[in-house]
């Protein structure tokens, strides 16, 4: 698939078919994605691929802890709640998703159910947990590197018929993920990519988030025109 077409067609998938993903397919995805650039070729990343019982345990415990009011315990520093234009964009995509799913503004049980789905990594059959070497903290540069790897994974997966969603909610309790997946202490858990074959009948999968016009965030300096 041409790169521009691939980027334009890709979307976040929040509903997956109950169908396993072959290990060979995931290996091919990572083989492609690892060509992502990294600062001075440091390649600071690690990928922990979970499925089956370990993923179910992470899902269940993360959901139970967060639904029970436990505090967020992520390895990386959070910005806290979004404000201003960032909050507006967050609300806009939520409205689209709830509208597609027929969830009314005052339907608290269904809104809560949607939140729990996020804590369960949207019931995807595979989760790729992305980590980086702790010795590189504070990690602004390696965060950038992992972002490149992450996007490479998402595009390579889409090219092979797989959908994904980059899902920080699914690892709100990094301590649980570390314990279940056996992730060593010298790695920082950054995020995860929930992945599987898209369920075309799941309404939220058709939702596309809006993007600002280039004039809103791009400046051209030194061009004659």
From TrEMBL:
Span of domain Nitroreductase: 8-197
Keywords of the record: Oxidoreductase
Domain of life: Bacteria
Signal peptide: none
MF (Gene Ontology): oxidoreductase activity
Family: Belongs to the nitroreductase family.
PANTHER family in the record: NAD(P)H NITROREDUCTASE YDGI-RELATED, NADH DEHYDROGENASE_NAD(P)H NITROREDUCTASE XCC3605-RELATED
Protein name: Nitroreductase
Organism of this sequence: Bradyrhizobium forestalis
């Amino acid at each position: 698939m041409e790169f521009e077409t691939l980027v334009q067609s890709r979307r976040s998938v929040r509903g997956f078919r109950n169908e396993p993903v072959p290990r060979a397919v995931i290996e091919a995805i990572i083989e492609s994605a690892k060509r992502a650039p990294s600062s001075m070729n440091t390649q600071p990343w690690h990928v922990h691929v979970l499925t089956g019982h370990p993923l179910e345990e992470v899902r269940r415990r993360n959901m139970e802890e967060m639904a029970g009011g436990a505090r967020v315990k992520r390895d990386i520093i959070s910005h806290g709640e979004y404000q201003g234009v960032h909050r507006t964009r967050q609300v806009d995509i939520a409205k689209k998703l709830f509208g597609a799913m027929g969830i009314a503004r005052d339907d608290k049980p269904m809104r809560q159910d949607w939140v729990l789905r996020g804590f369960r990594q949207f019931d995807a059959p595979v989760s790729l947990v992305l980590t980086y070497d702790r010795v590189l903290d504070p990690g602004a540069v390696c965060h950038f590197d992992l972002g490149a790897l992450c996007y490479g994974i998402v595009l390579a997966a889409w090219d092979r018929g797989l959908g994904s969603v980059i899902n920080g909610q699914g690892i709100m309790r990094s301590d649980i993920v570390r314990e279940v997946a056996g992730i060593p202490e010298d790695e920082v858990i950054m995020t995860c990519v929930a992945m599987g074959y898209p369920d075309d009948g799941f309404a939220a999968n058709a939702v596309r988030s809006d993007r600002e016009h280039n004039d809103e965030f791009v400046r051209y300096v030194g061009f004659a025109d």
